[in-house]
Model the fold of this input.
Amino acid sequence: MVFDIIGMLIIGLIVGLLARFLVPGKDPMGCVGTTLLGVAGSVIGGFVYQAFTGTRTEQGYVRPGFLVSLIGAIILVLLFRAIRKPRRTP
Done:
């Protein structure tokens, strides 16, 4: 159980970093935000994968592959940038 959570956070950090690297531009996000972005991207990617493939599990969630997690995180980066208001520099 503990190793699952640690593994999820490590993979989330890697996926979040890759998503931010692949989508050019600045994001005022630290290490924790990047990790949460990657984990959330994985969750969203899992639900999208489940919707398109019809795969079901007893827990109701499918563990997506690395690529599906990355696509979900990229979508979140783009949504984050679209929602976030640009800051003015004085």
